[in-house]
Amino acid sequence: MFCARKWLLAASGVAAMMAAPAVMAEDAFPSKPIQFVVPYPPGGPLDSMARLLAERVKGDLGTVVVENKSGAGGNIGASIVAKAAPDGYTLMMGAVAINAINPWLYKTVPFDPVQSFEPIALVASVPNILIVNKEFAQDNKIATVQDLVAYAKQHPGQLNFASGGNGSAGHLAGAVLNTRAQIDAIHVPYAGAAPAKTALLAGQVHFMFDNLASAAPLIKADSVKALAVTTTERSNFFPDVPTMEQAGVQPFDLGTWFGVFVTGGTPQPIVQKLHDAYAKALTEPSVRQALAVMGSDAEPGTVEQFRELVSNDLKKYKEVVASSGAELF
Predict the structure, then answer these.
(1) Residue 201 in contact with residue 170, Cβ under 8 Å?
(2) Can you give the pTM of this predicted structure?
């Protein structure tokens, strides 16, 4: 005779046995080295921070191997992480460009910006800053963003701005300024931020939006005129420089950030273990000092806070990229 009670007990026992390996795997994580993909070339800020953090999380996670997989604006490295097994052993140093801008900038990307990645911890958040050629600013009495806007309206088609390339953060910020302030500054793309700054210093272009850490030496040396930061709050490193919104251009919130991600679908206990390890590492003095050099004083926050940041920026940059007219293949 069929016994429902015995069958249920047996079934529950089988289910428990099937679930046990997964639970044990999560409890034992990590049991082998973790791959940390940096989708950019060696030597940059994301690469340097990934390597510093890899050393600081050893006590909690064991060996973390940093590997540079650059190309296609970060999309190649991101695709490797997106296609990896969702077991916590493949991480990515993601960034606003990869996770929030590229999905709208490129005609196709080899990943789903929402489903392919799980946020782990925000590492750095850095504003961009509007800097102007010093001689141009002095000759035309440009001391504020509104002075620059007034000049553009009085000299239509004569004001230009540099960027590190089509679709770069500097390009998008300039496009937003054009839209919000109703001016028509001409975009001049360069093959990277360094040659763009060289052109600015030489007076070949009038202004640019640059990463705060990169622009800081020029500002401190009084080589350029800093007008405003692109985030909604002032930078603690240049507290006298207003935000674009305080300067009268609203809305304007275009910061640069990067952080740790893992392959989408990774079990939450592993996600939390990774978050705890990286959040702890981000409080260490040597790491905080390195972040300060970059112009960041961000806190890692929680997984949910980081997920909300990514989600909000993904929506925001859809509009920004569309208004800029930028498109890459």
Answers:
(1) no
(2) 0.84
